[in-house]
Design goal:
Largest sheet: 5 strands, parallel
Oligomer: single chain
Shape: globular
Number of domains: 1
Strand content: 35-45%
Radius of gyration: 13 Å
Length: 115
């Protein structure tokens, strides 16, 4: 699934489809993003986000095998509620690196306990 917009400011996505493998979001003016995505295996899942003006991010569900979030220069707050399926556990560090500029970061217990 690809979402591309030059004017969208808020996006809310919720998906529980086993068929959905890749989400690509490219929205230059996006300020708020909510992603809720759950699946049985992370092995072929990827989340790519290009949103240089993103201020608010909430991502709940499962960690993906290939997260590509870039650097969010304007991020004010982020909240993660991610479950690891075992084959994706090292990707939590990659996601946290993308969120390093956030003024406020909320991690749920499952995200903290990823081993």
């Amino acid at each position: 699934m690809t979402i591309k917009s030059s004017s969208m400011k808020k996006l809310r996505f919720s998906g529980f489809s086993v068929d959905l493998c890749h989400i690509n979001i490219s929205c230059e003016k996006l300020e708020g993003l909510f992603v809720c995505w759950s699946f049985a295996s992370a092995s072929k899942k990827s989340l790519n986000i290009f949103a240089p003006n993103l201020k608010h991010l909430k991502w709940v569900g499962n960690m993906v095998k290939h997260p590509n979030l870039g650097k969010f220069e304007c991020l004010a707050d982020a909240a993660l509620g991610l479950n690891s399926l075992g084959d994706d556990k090292y990707n939590v560090f990659e996601v946290l690196d993308s969120l390093c500029r956030a003024k406020f970061l909320i991690l749920d217990e499952a995200t903290i306990k990823v081993k």
